Amino acid sequence: MGAVGTNFDDPRFTAIGLFMEAYTGLTNRFAAQFEQHRLSPVEFEVLMRLARSPNNRLRMTDLAGQTSLSTSGVTRVVDRMDREGLIRREACASDRRSSYAVITPAGIQRLEEILPGHLDLMQRWFIGQLSPQQLDQLMESLRLIRDAVNPCATAGTDESLPGPAAPTR
């Protein structure tokens, strides 16, 4: 017991601590590989979100909702990646205030260079650590938590549309 009666052995601390330690360990392994390909983790995330979205594009606001970036942060990242030729901006025909981020062929090529090594890392340090049943259960649990804490995470994707089961992201 702590001085004020806090139970520092509360299993909730252990649960979130284990999650954060696993996340940090994975992101550190991934970041080293991204660096070899001259991309930051957030740039990789932006490219993957766009590549996996309908027509390889998302509204800027939806891209911000799906990533760890603020609206102004996503603007800065998109502008930088646009200058590098990895993505481009397109005006929205129906709303002049909105614009889309669209992955370019150069962005797809950069992903194709990164993905074999990234998939190997994911398999070795994440997927391969779990049985298929454990992985299914973990993914279901992560979706529940994600939908509760980040309801915008699927904005602009097929998963955000009502109707039959949408592809998983």
Automatic annotation (TrEMBL):
Origin superkingdom: Bacteria
Entries under Gene3D superfamilies matching the protein: Winged helix-like DNA-binding domain superfamily/Winged helix DNA-binding domain (1.10.10.10)
Domain HTH marR-type: 9-147
Protein's UniProt keywords contain Translocase: no
Pfam families from the UniProt entry: MarR
GO molecular function terms listed in the Swiss-Prot or TrEMBL record: DNA binding; DNA-binding transcription factor activity
Record has Protease as a keyword: no
Biological process per Gene Ontology, one example term: response to stress
Keywords, sorted A to Z: DNA-binding
Protein name: DNA-binding MarR family transcriptional regulator
Organism encoding this protein: Pseudosporangium ferrugineum
